[in-house]
Batch of 3 targets.
Target 1
Amino acid sequence: MIYIAGMDDHTDQIRKPRADAVRNRERVLEAAKAVFSAGGPEASLEAIAKRAGVGIGTLYRHFPTREDLFEAVYRREVEQLSELAEQLKNAKDPVDALRRWLRSGVEFVATKKGMVAALALAVQSGSELHAFSFERLTKAIGSLLDRAAAAGAMRADISPEDLLRAFFGMCYMHDQPGWQSSVLRMLDVFVDGLRVQPAANVKTRAAKPVKPAVKRKR
Amino acid sequence: MIYIAGMDDHTDQIRKPRADAVRNRERVLEAAKAVFSAGGPEASLEAIAKRAGVGIGTLYRHFPTREDLFEAVYRREVEQLSELAEQLKNAKDPVDALRRWLRSGVEFVATKKGMVAALALAVQSGSELHAFSFERLTKAIGSLLDRAAAAGAMRADISPEDLLRAFFGMCYMHDQPGWQSSVLRMLDVFVDGLRVQPAANVKTRAAKPVKPAVKRKR
DNA sequence: GAAGATACGGAGGCAGCCTCCGCTTAACAA
DNA sequence: TTGTTAAGCGGAGGCTGCCTCCGTATCTTC
């Protein structure tokens, strides 16, 4: 068993976790990250164990199920996105902050092709990982959303869950050619839809100084 | 080989396809539809063969890969959605027609939990199925979109591909509690974002209209 | 250094994937 | 009808990956 702080707050002594166990766990995580990123969610766990230089038994002891392994691997990644939201909370324009978070999310996803597929698979099966990351990101994005809604810049009836869902879904379609610019465009549309329209934004298309809401990519 | 009209237009004789082959193919499709719907994309092909009452070899002869089987199963389903778009082209309000198509899509998806996961998996791997359904639905939705854009009711820089991608993505997150109403809400937001804002919709909430400059990707 | 807890690793059982090939059956010609 | 033959059938078998189990090795603690 891996030591967990606070797990056993009654009197029993608690052994320090074994050094080799800690080391091996780390190695497996490292290997899993690489293999999942490259090979997607179907990657062989035995291959991961081999790459980590441990026996398959060791891998299973640390991560009894495939999903457990996902969870551990992605936890850090999710944290990163979450922290970004924290930073953006200080931006001046709350709507823009939201937009920027979403855009960063796209880039983030872009660097982890196989991993996203794996994540998506986990989400499907309602695993622990989903619960964690969804909640974590929901909370992160919620603060951005609240701020924007409180400022009256954005409709207030869309929940963080909704938004996250939509975002995730859009990204899921990645790995088609041009998916990235497509998602970016979609997000712009989406944020436009969320925004409580300020007067400046309301021009019929004929009017000339229309701000270029979206730059076409292709 | 299954007979395909026009496959062999030079002089050779062409045998009629064997009745048992046709029958078995149909049985396998039937079984696959049921099994995939229930069990998702991971379902055992052997289970499908058994349910269809044929040998595993027969299944593989007709559908050499898992994806081939998906393709055949979903083709009809895709056709249905596609036809719906055709009908909606005659609605009065083009934006509303689009909205309704999307909403029907959600319902459609809702009845086929496992199947959508299977489809999504296929999309991931860039299979034939994806090419077919994406193109088919793109064309279908394109007509709706064009009509709305031509009427000046909708921004014109969003392609059918974009829209389909976003829609599919949103639906992909299904099987969480409440996903359906969430997706419906998201779609409303989305369609609102697409709509070229009519003056009536414009309430000035903020004295100073924020200039929502879209930041380019860093 | 000894004792005992903890972790290691891989053999082995199981399940699903896919191929291969001898047997069966339907289509066609006579 | 009947015979011929291409087309189709099915499942045994080889392979790979999943996961468990347990004898052995290693670490922590005293």
Note: Confidence is low (pLDDT under 50) at residues 1-12, 199-218 of chain B.
Target 2
Amino acid sequence: MDAVTAGLTIGKVARGAGLAVDTVRYYEREGLLEKPARTPGGYRRYSPEAVKRLQFIRQAKELGFTLAEIRELLTLKVAPDKSCADVRARAQAKIADVESRIAQLERMKRALEQLAASCSGRGPTSECPILEALERQEPGR
Amino acid sequence: MDAVTAGLTIGKVARGAGLAVDTVRYYEREGLLEKPARTPGGYRRYSPEAVKRLQFIRQAKELGFTLAEIRELLTLKVAPDKSCADVRARAQAKIADVESRIAQLERMKRALEQLAASCSGRGPTSECPILEALERQEPGR
DNA sequence: CTTGACCCTGGACCGAGCTCCAGGGTTTAG
DNA sequence: CTAAACCCTGGAGCTCGGTCCAGGGTCAAG
């Protein structure tokens, strides 16, 4: 296991993160994943942290974040010098965003619970309570 | 305000829900919105509930639900007869889904808070805590 | 040193979810 | 009775986020 053989192939990180190989290369092109080292033959070689990063991307995507938003989340850390207060501010903004999503989902959850409950006590399924649940509101997503 | 003039135009429901007119027509085509009544001249006429329904669609979309998933959520109510236990089961499944999303978001929120905190105590922004936050896990989305 | 599994690039193509015409008809305020 | 504002249909086109080749090179187990 010399310096050249070390590291994971793209196939392995992809499998590790539950993504397709093409998708990993796509994320690299889109700037979500740093360009990895290469073998002399031109093969990408990844560190195990790449798997974590890709898992993060996948899950954030499933939560409805766009790739642009995910890029922003990921670059919150890549501010080694000056911008500390700035990073803090951006993190706060993201927190507010996340909190408002949680609140929305909790409203939706309550509505679904109501629906399930109203159904268990017989009688025909009444007029949709879901629609009552998520009205108004929209903090600056 | 006779029977013909009653109801909202597509422009009004669209504005009310924060959507484009074309999008409303698109949702109708996609079966997310029931076909509305028409004036003799062929104009769509909506009830105020249509606005609620569209707001729900918009917000669910922002939370990362696909239109297909949203359609499922909306049809949970449209089961007037037989399927009561079935509706209940489907609602439970949706609740589980929503709960797992909330859990993910809460993990992400904690990670962001950690990041903001670690930054406030000076020192250069440390290695990304966000990546630690959302590992493993993936309940059946 | 072969061979099968894997990786490379570049570019075409795809489905979801809109968005934008063109060409024409309807409504309604004044 | 106008004229501006709005609506209709049908269909083309666009962005995002991948996905899938073709044609060729690399790696590593045996």
Note: Residues 9-11, 21, 25, 39, 41-44 of chain B lie near DNA strand D (CB under 10 Å from a C1').
Target 3
Amino acid sequence: MDQPIRVIAFDDNKDLRDMFRMLVDAQPDMVCVAVHPDLAQMMRDIDAAQPDVIVMDIQMPGMNGIEGVRAIKARYPAARILMQTVFDDDDKVFDAICAGACGYILKTAAVEEMTKAIRDVHSGGSAMTPAIAFKVLSRFRANEPATTAEQEYGLSDREKGVLTLLVKGRSYKMIAEELGISYHTVDSHMRKIYEKLHVHSNAEAVSKAVSKRLV
Amino acid sequence: MDQPIRVIAFDDNKDLRDMFRMLVDAQPDMVCVAVHPDLAQMMRDIDAAQPDVIVMDIQMPGMNGIEGVRAIKARYPAARILMQTVFDDDDKVFDAICAGACGYILKTAAVEEMTKAIRDVHSGGSAMTPAIAFKVLSRFRANEPATTAEQEYGLSDREKGVLTLLVKGRSYKMIAEELGISYHTVDSHMRKIYEKLHVHSNAEAVSKAVSKRLV
DNA sequence: GATTCCATCACGAGAATTCGGGATTGAACC
DNA sequence: GGTTCAATCCCGAATTCTCGTGATGGAATC
């Protein structure tokens, strides 16, 4: 390895901070550049510390962990954040995911698990406990009706192109210009699209196209 | 441990099948109850084999892996399926997730990784490579209702109601009737909606409403 | 009590869409 | 060689949307 992974951590418990630093520094490919007891202090230090991975608890005093992730992401969109959680069946993990964290491990995880998670996160991946991964996949399936209801409405490529531009908010006239065809042709394609999608208006066509992920 | 984990595998390559059986049987807590060269045969054998975990390749001869998962899930909804994939950046993993598989590991994974994945899947969790996990989280974020964005746009209840009907394909006139207000009022609400959503057409408003889950 | 939203309603003009009719070309298929 | 179909184009009329420029009453906020 070329450069050690620069890790920065946040925890309100001093013993855990010291322990964390010790464990990380014991890794040949990592260096713990800082540990902080509160978020504000850590935020101030990020510029100087230039961490590759930020490790923080989802439960935090004063500010909740999700807000913390959001705050860090707002200022450092490229930050790679690994969350530690006591309960991995907490619905908060979903909020944390949406806030932009890219790893979720148990606070009780073994050292090897934690360091593996840090390495995974650092190398561009995500780390999760199997239980969290299962919840994420379940939720993912619920949100993704597209593939299950993979109804092929039989739209031609041209029709898809027209529909795509329509979804982007273009008018018939603009679509005609962008595709280099006449307004009448766009109209004609739209009629076909209405027919195939069984809709009767611009709005309904767009709605169906977006929700069924046809474009 | 009480009962060994019953594993069944599908692979079209005989050497890999034998290898797989050997590796699994070498685990103290697992037993490979069967390996099959094709899906039909495996399907017939599932009742007799009573497997806890099914391991199969996402690339399959004849039938694609996603269809295989669907077929198994259709008959055995509780089946726990671990997919093996050569490329973990393939968009097919999303299809497989939706089909119901609960693990995605690389075919080149080390033995310990594979057996850990089998154990994770067996104990009710999910297993993924960090790269796949990252892609899933990214997609997950994109799909989740934007909790922050909802407030950004600041749509009133009435505006949301109007927008909801619009998304369903209603015309202004129909919306007016359904809500018991005049056409002009609908028009007025729509203007506000355009303004708040920063869009300039019916289609774009619907598109944004659906994709940002505003309704 | 003034201000600020929200929801409601109104007129008019111009733009855009929808839908009823068509038509032609070229490629694919049997 | 005939048929089907996607893609292209056209006209005209009815309908619908968009937007400028208003107004009123009520509720909440300060």
Note: Residues 146-150 of chain A have pLDDT under 50 and may be disordered.
